[in-house]
Design a protein that fits this description.
The chain is an all-alpha fold and 164 residues long. It has 6 helices and no strands. 58% of the residues lie in helices and 0% in strands. The structure holds zinc ion. The site of zinc ion has 8 residues, from loops.
């Protein structure tokens, strides 16, 4: 690895840069703390029936596969575990649609200006990468039988009153 301050090559596990004295340990903890903060979302697995989880894993996975969320939405109404994932998957799909529509409009109005087109395209690409990562996390949680909230999306409870 390399020292972030002076760029000198440092052996893995070294806590202080031998060239400039930069404390390398704090930097690593800082980043991992931020990652942990984002990924350590509420895990509500214990509040679900193990049989429900076992029987509805596939339905829960479908919730994160774009429009396939409609299958568990209508076919797994009696499964609280599938419902949990449907709420997150549906919210993710809604966010994807909103981003696509908003940037579609922005690009068609202002896309003639190359710089604006570039900015819109880049922001949209970043959003889509985030959506993709979130859906993968959701699929992994569902496949592992976990009812774990997604970062960002999991905190938005707007569907709680719509889908029981
Ligand atoms: Zn250094």
């Amino acid at each position: 690895m390399f020292c972030p301050k002076c760029g000198a090559q440092v052996e893995d596990g070294v806590k202080v840069c031998p060239t400039c004295g930069e404390n390398l340990e704090a930097k690593t903890e800082d980043v991992s703390a931020k990652v942990a903060e984002l990924t350590n979302t509420a895990d509500l697995t214990a509040t679900f029936d193990p049989n429900d989880i076992q029987n509805n894993k596939v339905m829960a996975i479908l919730a994160y596969l774009s429009w396939l969320v409609l299958i568990p939405l209508f076919a797994a109404k009696d499964s609280p575990f599938a419902r949990f994932h449907v709420k997150q998957g549906l919210l993710l799909a809604i966010c994807e649609i909103i981003v696509a529509v908003v940037f579609g409009i922005l690009t068609s109005i202002l896309g003639g200006v190359f710089v604006l087109w570039l900015i819109f395209t880049l922001i949209q690409a970043v959003c889509n990468i985030i959506f993709f990562v979130l859906s993968i996390m959701g699929i992994i949680n569902a496949a592992q039988g976990k009812a774990k909230e997604l970062p960002i999306i999991g905190k938005l409870k707007i569907l709680d009153n719509v889908i029981k």
